[in-house]
Amino acid sequence: MVAASALTLVCAVAAGVAASAAAAEFTRGPSPAELHAASRREVAERWRSWPAGRVFPATLLYSAEQGGVERASRIGISPRTDCAEAVDPEAVAALRAAGCLGVLRATYIDALRGVLVTVGVVALPDERAAARAKAVFPESGDPVPGVRPLAFHGTVADRFSPSVRQAGSVRQSGPYVVLTAAGQVDGRPARALAERRTSIFAFAPEISESVLAGLSTPRLPDCAAREWAC
Q: Mean pLDDT throughout 118-142?
């Protein structure tokens, strides 16, 4: 009888400890590792969870050639996200191999309304895949292979075709690669120009970096908010 009572007491204590541990697990706050993981997940989902106007703001600041700050204005955003459609054929296979999830595109015009820039956001599964994808695109400023220009009929970007591209850029941070393709509003093909005026396109990488920073900069998780999974 004494042994049975002792065993019952031990079992009760064990059950109490287990219940206490379970309660502590359910009521404790997220650990630093869990917060970091939640932050990474939130960053990786921004390309599809954010409204298009948040990914591509209506205006983006850049440094003017003459000094000071000017604004590039958004002309339009593509509703399509297909990876193969958004980049040159030479880059499609490499993007697929890297696990391309989608490409967002928007076209901007500079403050003087003479230069068009298509900004393309390539979403990849993680930072390593994004680094692989970035290596496909030239860092020399050549626009090919790169993002395909996004034209909008009935606007100043009506003639923004692949042949008009004169400059390109590539940037990467986190699971994102951001590309630009820049050309002149008048629709002149790059091959028709005697020389490339690279200085007029220098603002394109700057506005792409603004888009990239917005997408890839982590923020402190708010586990009470619906957008977070802590």
A: 97
